[in-house]
Write a structure and sequence with these properties.
- The structure is a single chain.
- This protein has 303 residues and is an alpha/beta fold.
- The strands form three sheets. The chain has a five-stranded parallel β-sheet, with helices on both faces. It has a four-stranded mixed β-sheet with strand order 4-3-10-9.
- Helices cover 47% and strands 18% of the residues.
- Helix 6 packs across helix 9 and helix 6 crosses helix 12 (290-300).
- The protein has two domains: 2-177, Rossmann fold; 181-300, N-(1-d-carboxylethyl)-l-norvaline Dehydrogenase, domain 2 (Orthogonal Bundle), CATH 1.10.1040.
- The chain is globular.
- It has helices at residues 10-21, 32-41, 80-92, 106-112, 157-168, 179-200, 204-209, 213-230, 239-249, 258-265, 275-285, 290-300, and strands at 2-6, 25-29, 43-47, 50-54, 57-59, 70-73, 96-99, 122-126, 129-133, 136-139, 145-149, 172-175.
Length: 303
């Protein structure tokens, strides 16, 4: 398959590198020193199992984007508008578009931005990865997985073919017939983690150990689940209890969500996509979500 990776940072770099190593034709949409290094030396991918360098193409020109079968969108949610021209061009040239952004609104934002709905699938990634130097990405987690599916539900040949390509590249991948549920299940987890660790300015271990920590986690999870149900998403009955138990009983104490890492670095965050969106959805549904409203207000203060 021909892949276009729009967003060649940690997630896009690792997945694109693995796909290229498996023999797929991969082009990275990248800029500056990162693009130059990829063009000159290839893309180096460092993983817990070892390191390899993949030969991929790289460009920063929308006009020069090649035709592709699949365009994988792997930017931070706050950068989606910036890459919309590239995504539109890829779709116009025949690519199926798979957004792997955090949140539950990426597909709608792409469609509102002029990408034909028929070209857009739903997608999510589970991997911790960073761009550590120009031309170099590093996977920090022991896992790398993705899920892809049709926005309207049901299995399709194209979603299965995309999942097969990722699976063949060593990425734990599957096609889902219930992509809306998959997206919201990830959203419940990452948004609750962002809120509680962000408010505590700590990894999950100290948050759990703090007085009222378990109650805070359960409330943060429960608010997102309540919003999902208000929006008609058929999450499992035990979603809140299961996700809360996973955070409280299973996660390693040193785990930090990417939102907290962004806070600590002083860079932009995905607040608007995480607690900010939950608060907006809750207001639309006429329900309260005090944890996420607090997070939205606290992190929305400009410093």
């Amino acid at each position: 398959m021909r892949f276009l990776i729009i967003g060649a940072g940690g997630v896009g770099g690792v997945f694109g590198g693995e796909l290229a190593r498996a023999g797929h034709d991969v082009t990275m949409f990248a800029r500056g020193a990162h693009r130059d290094a990829i063009e000159r030396n290839g893309l180096t991918v460092r993983e817990p199992e070892g390191e390899f360098t993949a030969r991929v193409s790289a460009t920063d020109s929308v006009a020069d984007l090649p035709s592709a079968d699949i365009a994988v969108i792997a930017v931070k949610s706050y950068s989606l508008a910036e890459v919309l021209p590239a995504v539109r061009t890829a779709a116009e040239r025949g690519a199926n578009v798979v957004p792997l952004l955090n949140g539950v609104t990426a597909a709608d934002e792409l469609i509102a931005g002029g990408v034909p709905r028929s070209n857009v699938l739903g997608g999510l990634a589970r991997v911790s990865a960073v761009r550590s130097a120009p031309g170099v990405v590093e996977r920090l987690s022991g896992f790398k997985s993705m899920v892809v599916g049709e926005l309207g539900g049901g299995l399709s040949a194209r979603a299965s073919a995309i999942a097969d390509a990722f699976q063949g590249a060593g990425i734990d991948a599957r096609a889902s017939a219930t992509m809306d549920v998959e997206l919201w299940q990830k959203y419940v987890f990452i948004t609750a983690m962002a809120a509680v660790c962000g408010l505590g300015r700590a990894s999950i271990g100290p948050v759990r150990e703090a007085p009222g920590g378990h109650r805070l986690i359960k409330r943060a999870v429960g608010e997102v689940v309540a919003v999902a149900r208000a929006r008609g998403v058929p999450l499992p009955e035990d979603e809140a209890a299961r996700t809360s138990a996973y955070i409280i009983d299973t996660l390693p104490p040193a785990m930090k969500p990417s939102f907290l890492l962004d806070l600590e670095s002083g860079g932009p965050t995905e607040l608007d996509t995480l607690s900010g969106a939950v608060a907006r959805f809750a207001a639309e549904a006429g329900i309260e979500c005090p944890v996420h409203e607090t997070a939205m207000a606290a992190f929305g203060v400009r410093r």
